[in-house]
UniProtKB/TrEMBL annotation:
<comment type="similarity">
    <text>Belongs to the acyl-CoA oxidase family.</text>
</comment>
<dbReference type="GO" id="GO:0005504">
    <property type="term" value="F:fatty acid binding"/>
</dbReference>
<keyword id="KW-0276">Fatty acid metabolism</keyword>
<dbReference type="GO" id="GO:0055088">
    <property type="term" value="P:lipid homeostasis"/>
</dbReference>
<protein>
    <recommendedName>
        <fullName>Acyl-coenzyme A oxidase</fullName>
    </recommendedName>
</protein>
<dbReference type="GO" id="GO:0033540">
    <property type="term" value="P:fatty acid beta-oxidation using acyl-CoA oxidase"/>
</dbReference>
<dbReference type="InterPro" id="IPR002655">
    <property type="entry name" value="Acyl-CoA_oxidase_C"/>
</dbReference>
<keyword id="KW-0576">Peroxisome</keyword>
<keyword id="KW-0443">Lipid metabolism</keyword>
<dbReference type="InterPro" id="IPR029320">
    <property type="entry name" value="Acyl-CoA_ox_N"/>
</dbReference>
<dbReference type="InterPro" id="IPR009100">
    <property type="entry name" value="AcylCoA_DH/oxidase_NM_dom_sf"/>
</dbReference>
<dbReference type="InterPro" id="IPR046373">
    <property type="entry name" value="Acyl-CoA_Oxase/DH_mid-dom_sf"/>
</dbReference>
<dbReference type="GO" id="GO:0005777">
    <property type="term" value="C:peroxisome"/>
</dbReference>
<dbReference type="GO" id="GO:1904070">
    <property type="term" value="P:ascaroside biosynthetic process"/>
</dbReference>
<feature type="binding site">
    <location>
        <position position="162"/>
    </location>
    <ligand>
        <name>FAD</name>
    </ligand>
</feature>
<dbReference type="GO" id="GO:0003997">
    <property type="term" value="F:acyl-CoA oxidase activity"/>
</dbReference>
<dbReference type="GO" id="GO:0071949">
    <property type="term" value="F:FAD binding"/>
</dbReference>
Length: 645
């Protein structure tokens, strides 16, 4: 099963070898539990381990393999980030996609050797979403052939870039490019920030950390201001866009090619989110198979809480989602890598499809992941609330994905633009022009679903029902938009009056895509034992998801209320059928205890002994009497006693 999850036996077994290798190297382990450390201690600890990784990486992984590096980082550094997180996640991808060969020779090779540390500085105090209104300006000075970077007011300060605050000495900075008074929109520049020897900020740079956050606190998200700061013309990233010495601007082959680092993260983060969801579910499912509370048969001992249908309903549909997401994530990464290669040859035809797909997936997956993690926490009762479970940290890190790389409700609108265009084609009788991801929009719906009438409930009927729902909502939302425009609203006003409905269409389209990706993967499985278990999980998934969106199919009679009952019964049937495999389904992700960092979710299942040992090790228990008691509480009680006398 691990080979299914990790798209092949080769990587699944490499993960095992890497974990086994690390198990023998205590210097790579957390020196104490992360929840017992201050932020400064965590950053120090993470930097220590990062240095070890840089020194010994070649002995443990093939550093050119992204997935091996990712696994090494998960084991050693963990999810709370590290001082070079953005270096790998965005700085290197931005240089790879946007720097010219000559620039790559100069900077990318140094970045890969870790001679310099970089980040991606785009968001500002006043603007994150609306990139066209960024306020940092890069004005071209023809005389000196330099760009002058400037922060004209406080809202123009860069704000949020990860590892900008304290760690990075370079950044890919996004600024509005002005040449001879003309605004050429957001462009990307390679900018030195700190002296390479002293790490002191360079003259003209104001820089620092933005303070603690909900989670992800090992990362020093930062602020950055420029005071008429000069960089050479050749620091504009010039793989696709160019500015000649005389200020002539050479347009890229696609207007949004500069947004590639964001598309990179959106493509990869689907897998990252699936893994975080699986972390939380591993902890909650293992714990639920140890925790006994209450009885189902009063003549029998207390049951494991995993026997309760409510607990199964709380956890199993999310287990199915984690599988669905990791399968969809693998497809997305393949598409991204293909588009990256095609862009190299000047073919930008798939960029819009990739952008639409990743915008929708990023939004739906992060939202459902956060919901699933929070349910997993609650499924652990009181112990879920303790940092010993580590689920609160997993939640905090994962939920950041709802905001970063484009706020979810904004990114759903990007997909909606694509869907509206497609709906326009359908309306104009040009369905043959629809791309493969939206071809279903042009198909004709059956009048009712046959979900309960096919002999073996196959997935085709479910897919058809999801298609019906997504098609109906897309055409309806587009109609609403066109209707407002026909009545005289501008497109922007009409759009704003239709966005709730448009975003619903985007979610339904994306959920259909996820179901289809799950079906595609299960169809490929050759081993009959695995196929059976994955088919059960997929059946659970399609019934749970369909029930969640059934209102759309009930309102036009595509589904009847008796079919709804059928779907519910199927759901309950598969909850019970999956129960014996539940622990194996989470164990199949093969997370080591070191990677999970959860006292509650350890493989040995010795929950109570482990919790007691953890609590005793808490910093507060180092002494029996705290200074706060000596200083305040004792005098308080003493004075209360004295006043009574
Ligand atoms: C296999 C390996 C295993 C390992 C896996 C695990 C890996 C884990 C990966 C790491 C995970 C986590 C890392 C955490 C790091 C987090 C760091 C966070 C960083 C950031 O947040 S960086 C800042 C991100 N900021 C944003 O995302 C801003 C959002 N805003 C925008 O993107 C844009 O402003 C916009 C898209 C909303 C609007 O842009 P605008 O220029 O105004 O355009 P529009 O007018 O709306 O649209 C015009 C047309 O352009 C099309 N368009 C827009 N963007 C793109 C694009 N990128 N590509 C193609 N086309 C695009 C748009 O659709 C319009 O088209 P149309 O006119 O409709 O045809
Ligand atoms: C953990 C974390 C790490 C980050 N790392 C980086 C980084 O490394 N580099 C970097 O540059 N940035 C980074 N960011 C910033 C991040 O990319 C932005 O916060 C994000 O893009 C959202 O933009 P915003 O903060 O301006 O939100 P806003 O756009 O101000 O959103 C506020 C509200 O307004 C709504 N809204 C905004 N525009 C519209 C619209 N057009 N239609 C409808 N509703 C709208 C949103 O839906 C939301 O409800 C990070 C953020 C976080 C949380």
């Amino acid at each position: 099963m691990a080979a299914q999850i990790y798209s092949g036996e080769k990587y699944a077994s490499r993960r095992r070898e890497i974990s086994a290798n690390l198990a023998k190297r205590p210097e790579f382990h957390d020196s104490k539990p992360l929840p017992f450390m201050t932020r400064e201690e965590k950053i120090l600890e993470s930097s220590r381990k990062l240095t070890l990784i840089s020194k010994h990486m070649n002995e443990i992984i093939d550093p050119s393999d992204k997935r091996e590096l990712y696994h090494l980082n998960c084991e050693v550094l963990g999810i709370e980030g590290n001082p070079m997180a953005l270096h790998g996640d965005m700085f290197i991808p931005a240089l790879t996609a946007q720097a010219s060969d000559e620039q790559q020779e100069k900077w990318l090779s140094r970045a890969l050797r870790r001679e310099i540390i970089g980040t991606y500085a785009q968001t500002e105090l006043g603007h994150g979403t609306n990139l066209r209104k960024l306020e940092t300006i890069a004005t071209y000075d023809v005389d000196t052939q330099e760009f002058v970077l400037h922060t004209p007011q406080i809202t123009a300060l860069k704000w949020w870039p990860g590892n900008l605050g304290k760690s990075s000495n370079y950044a890919v900075v996004v600024a509005l490019m002005i040449i001879k008074g003309k605004n050429y929109g957001p462009q990307t520049f390679m900018v030195p920030l700190r002296d390479e020897k002293t790490h002191q900020p360079l003259k003209g740079i104001t820089i620092g950390d933005i303070g603690p956050k909900l989670a992800y606190n090992i990362v020093d998200n930062g602020f950055l201001g420029f005071d008429h700061y000069r960089i050479p013309r050749t620091n504009l990233l010039m793989r696709h866009t160019r500015v000649e010495p005389d200020g002539t601007f050479v347009k890229p082959p696609h207007a949004k090619i500069n947004y590639s680092a964001m598309v990179h993260v959106r493509s990869y983060m689907i897998t990252g989110q699936a893994i975080m969801l699986a972390y939380a579910l591993t902890i909650a499912t293992r714990y639920s198979s140890v925790r006994r509370q209450g009885q189902i048969d009063t003549t029998q001992p207390e049951v494991k809480v995993l026997e309760y249908q409510t607990q199964q309903h709380r956890l199993f549909p999310s287990i199915a989602r984690a599988y669905a997401f990791v399968f969809a994530g693998a497809e997305t990464v393949r598409l991204y890598e293909r588009v990256l290669q095609e862009v190299e040859t000047g073919n930008v035809s798939l960029m819009a499809d990739l952008h639409a797909l990743t915008s929708g997936l990023k939004s739906v997956v992060t939202h459902q992941t956060a919901q699933g993690i929070e349910q997993a926490r609650m499924a652990c009762g009181g112990h879920g609330y303790s940092q010993a479970s580590y689920i609160s940290e997993i939640f905090g890190v994962a939920v950041g994905g709802c905001t970063y790389e484009g706020e979810n409700l904004v990114m759903l609108q990007q997909l909606a633009r694509y869907l509206v265009k497609s709906a326009g084609l359908v309306q104009a009788g040009q369905s043959s022009k629809l791309g493969p991801l939206v071809a279903y929009l042009g198909a004709k719906s059956d009048s009712t679903s046959l979900i309960d009438r096919t002999p073996t409930p196959g997935f085709a009927e479910y897919v058809k029902t999801f298609q019906h729902i997504a098609r109906k909502q897309t055409l309806k939302a587009a109609q609403k938009l066109f209707g407002f425009m026909e009545k005289g609203d501008t497109r922007e006003v009409a759009w704003n009056k239709s966005t709730v409905e448009l975003n619903r269409a985007s979610r339904l389209h994306t959920r259909l895509y996820i179901v289809e990706a799950f079906v595609r993967r299960v169809e490929e499985v050759a081993d009959p034992r695995l196929k059976e278990v994955l088919t059960d999980l997929l059946r659970l998934h399609v019934n749970y998801e369909l029930l969640d969106v059934a209102a759309y199919a009930l309102e036009d009679g595509f589904l009847s209320s008796s079919q709804l009952d059928y779907i519910r019964e199927q759901l309950y049937f598969y909850l019970a059928k999956i129960r014996p495999n539940a622990v194996s389904l989470v164990d199949s992700w093969e997370f080591s205890d070191r990677e999970l960092r959860s006292v509650l979710g350890r493989r040995d299942g010795n929950v109570y002994e482990n919790l007691f040992a953890w609590a005793k090790a808490s910093p507060l228990n180092k002494t029996d009497v705290l200074p706060s008691v000596d200083k305040y509480l004792k005098p308080l009680m003493e004075s209360a006693r004295a006043s009574k006398l």
